[in-house]
Amino acid sequence: METMDQRLVSTWSNVNSSVPLSFVQPPECRPGKVTNPSTKTIPLIDLGGHDHAHTITQVLKASQEYGFFQVINHGISKDLVEETLNIFKEFHAMPAKEKVNECSKDPNGINCKIYASSENYKKDAIQYWKDTLTHPCSPSGEFMEFWPQKPPKYREIVGKYTQELNKLGHEILEMLCKGLGLKPDLFIGELSENPIVLAHHYPPCPDPSLTLGLAKHRDPTLITLLLQDQEVHGLQVLKDNEWIPVEPILNAFVVNIGLILQIITNGRLIGAEHRVVTNSISARTSVAYFIYPSFSRMIEPAQELVDEITPPIYKSMSFGEFRKNFYEKGPKIEQVLHS
Ligand code: OGA
Ligand code: NI
């Protein structure tokens, strides 16, 4: 049987000059010629401005219309951003066996993982051109003993980075609460206490027109904060039936609304569909910070946003149940969310 280190795309993709059949997407999913004909972009928001009320309006508008935006002047130092991208690049550049070994410290195999393609590997009919390292990153430091220890500064840098992202995530959530008229502390505690980090690595691909790095999806999160490689394109957002590229901007974060926030806001905010295309020239690294609730927390439309005229359009379920549905149903999850 193939072992995980053999399966990682980075292990074999540089010795293959063509795309293996198991990675060729069906025609309706192929990106085709990836030349970015669109001139549209997602909103760019300066979080450092003095008019806080105006910033809130911008964040709310972008979350309602696009479900995606980028933020600059977010208060996270550019040195930390650079160190973080570099540490994950160095991690993915290590020998495959070492990567797998560094992700095998949890005897239950749950709290740190490296995988090829997607977490649903066995269920994916067609594979995706990517390797991913993921683990929980709660500010309390829980499970840190299972994180990689190589490269040597991994825990120090990723620990510092995820603390900062937790603060930024909460600032944005608080702005959304203010904009929507929700209690400003609604997302403090159980609804956001289970963050995870995912460090994706998309190796160069011999034929980007046939493959995808990541399938079209909505995130199963409250919100996601994404750091992307400074030079390499790949992420695209679906808006009005058109794929809009998300420009890599120096020291910016891409913020996107996840399905859970779509449910809690009773559809006022949208968890937009997005995907990642590959390229033939450079490897691309991205670091996603997923804000998740605790597994037992019920997810349902907020009281303040429902009444007789606007009844809840989603039913209540625990986050644990939601996540199970998400992995079983994939893109068809919306069928089970509606009340
Ligand atoms: C994700 C995601 C985008 C990227 O992790 O859910 O959409 O650019 N990542 O890697
Ligand atoms: Ni995503």
Automatic annotation (TrEMBL):
Belongs to the iron/ascorbate-dependent oxidoreductase family. The keyword Kinase does not apply. Signal peptide: none annotated. Pfam families: 2OG-FeII_Oxy, DIOX_N. GO terms for molecular function: L-ascorbic acid binding; metal ion binding; oxidoreductase activity. Keywords: Iron, Metal-binding, Oxidoreductase, Vitamin C. This is Fe2OG dioxygenase domain-containing protein. Transmembrane segments: none annotated. The keyword Oxidoreductase applies. Residues 192-293 form the Fe2OG dioxygenase domain.
